[in-house]
Amino acid sequence: MTVNEAKFLSKKIMQAGEVPLLVGHFGVGKTDIARQIASETGRNLIILILSQMEPGDLIGLPAKENDKTVFLRPDWWPENGKSIILLDEINRAHRSIRNAIMQLVIDKRIHNHILPEDTWIMATMNPPDDEYDQADLITDPAFISRFFILDISPSLEEWQKWAKENSIDENVRKFVEKYPEFLYTPSALSLRVELRPSPRSWYKLSNVLKFLNDEERRKYGYSIAAGILGPEAAKAFVEFGHIDLVPIPQKVLLEGIQQALKDDVDQANSLTLRIIDYFSKLDGATTQLLHAHISTVAKNLSELSSVLPRDSFYAIIRFIVDKANGKENSKFFDELVEKLSNFEQVRSVLDEI
What we know:
353 residues, alpha/beta, Rossmann fold, five-stranded parallel beta sheet, 17 helices, 9 strands, 51% helix, ClpA/B
């Protein structure tokens, strides 16, 4: 998702009393999101760089009081609830402070110190890497399930705006504008643990959905659900809620699709699943119908490249290619691939496959 989308959802998640975890490579703007939210909501931002902290820095030092051991408040402890605590580099936190992080996220307290009411918490991390010493922290389902995962990939427009505001060299800005592929190297997000639905995750999702109106649910429903349920359950959940809004696959293939779908991630993902399911269940009569209009089908499929997210469009074309190399209806799909190759936007995907 873009930086602006991540900022919007992070704010909604924290309003619901939950904790967003922003995942993105160095320099994509994770900390800037926290700063902007703090500025927009009049909150004090407390940044805890966990990879540089010792246990005493996070939980406070022990002291003796009335013949009992107590822990002093750490110096970063917020004075009031108008604060945001940013747990930075959470996957690089030392094992010795892991339990304190859990207590802070779950109970909003550390030892005998309770956070002021309405204190917000958010976390950031880079994508998992074998060089990270504490990568095992994020393989623990009990830990990762406490967060809403938001995977950030900044758009060129967002970066250009930021670059101009921060006086980035003009030649650098012009180069990136001409060659946007060099802005950053995208890589698939892998948390080394599979997000799965649970009673807790459904409860957390329900909390956040209460802060979204109908339009926001349609636009961000999949993204917010995938961050706590995992993609499979999220797609099923979104499709359940929007099935009447998603165009029928056969109508899309024969009549085309409206550009309005381009801005609705939920419907776009649902449509992808339904087209693949439709192609996997073709009967003889339907195959003949599509074959009689195969040029139209190919053209309408190619136009999906401007509507669907790239990975969704890639999944559809990949499925068609696999069917062409299979046994069932292979003649139809082979001819469909040939027709699709006439369209430049599809040819690049076919070349990758």
